[in-house]
Amino acid sequence: MVLRAQPHILVIDDDEVARDSARVLLGRWGYRVTLAETGEKGLEALKADPPDLIVVDLQMPGISGLDVLQSVRESDPAIVCIMVTGFATLQSAMDAMKQGAYDFLPKPFSPDELKLAVNRGLERRFLEQETQKLRQEKAMMEANFVTMVSHQMRSPLAAVRQLLEVAASESLGPMDDKYKNLITRANLRIDGLMQDINAWLNMVRIAADGVAERKKPINLSEVVKTLAERAQMEAEAAGQELSVEGPAEDVTLQVDRESLMEALYNITSNAVKYNREGGRVGIKAQGSRQQADIIITDQGPGIPEAELPFIFDDFFRSKSPELKSKPGTGLGLSITRRIVRAHGGEVSVSSRKGEGTIFTVSLPL
Amino acid sequence: MAKILIIDDDPDFTLATKAILEAAGHQILTAPDGKAGLERVQSEDPDLIILDIMMDSIYEGFSVTTTLRGTPEYMDYRDIPVLMVSAVKKITGQRFDIPADAKMAEGDEFLDKPFSAQVLLSKVDKLLAM
Description:
- The complex is a heterodimer of chains A (about 375) and B (about 130).
- With about 375 residues, chain A is α/β, with parallel strands linked by helices.
- Chain A contains 11 helices and 12 strands.
- Chain B is globular, with a radius of gyration of 14 Å.
């Protein structure tokens, strides 16, 4: 579908006078015009330089207007065809309409009648293209879930950063150094956050497509070790303890390391974030012949029972005040579940109010 | 010193961009959506258009460029340079997939939001010189 800056009209008519006056009129109205004196030449012109609209005489020696119409409908039904009929033969005009012509013009017609028919035809053409484009856009949007998330998260941040840029560039007048310093620091934090978002969304993209192709063997103990190192740092920073257990029997998993670790970090980060003060985070791993389980526990307020079925939903955030008060995007657990499922596994949760929460990630071997 | 039309559905972003451009001596007009934007193009004939892709209404920005470049009604405004902006870079590092035969939908230049005052002003100067 080619959109043209200037509508292009092809006029096919064996009558030289008709062709010339069409060219003058259509040119005057701002259209690009191509002329053809026979149906055959018309079809050649159609192929060489497809128009938006064709005005074609029904009665011509050689290939008739109806033949041209049929050809056009076969090759590109989006091109609008207006049939010019001599002797106002109703039958041929009706045949043409049935075969997909958009309109017909009985000879003799006035310049105004031509203009009206052509304008209506072009409007139809344009609408057709718009609809096509909208359909494509809708499909693009659905296919680009992550792009939409990116938009939701980055747009407000971009707006904030842009407002601060006005200050940083002193566009509204010079600023006291003390304020300038604060603005600079704020900008650095936002730039850092934008980078984090990019990395995060990139990770989601990785997780969403092609996990299967990137799987490599890795020992469960290795997974636990890497996870524990990261959890240890976060726990210490939050004044919490970390306990690590297992696996009693080491097993080998086939995983995409980058995305699986990210999936597990989401859970341990949550365990630290929502834990009670000075609480403990537990990581326990166990392997059997068929599967490996990684169990992560915390001693936080627990998740309300009514919310448990929803916590893995995109953007879900708890309404419970202790959980709501901590910052979060609501994406961590949904990303985790996506990744775990892409590995053929499952993640489940159980929780007790006031006691804590247990997440279990199970992976097939 | 040019007349620049900003078409963007984010009022904060519009405000910030306006401030930066006015500080450089340009005259700024704004519109919050594609329809209002096109009306302004006809009534004001700006020297440059800064157009957000406006993803909340299914990439409305692309519709604006298509209309400007592809309809007889806007023939007189076809040559106004368009700077397209967006907060979203498709995360593979490429911009949006625009099918090869819909190049009409693209602007003349593209900038990722947010942009520094310096970058914005130099792109604007470049496009105005075109």
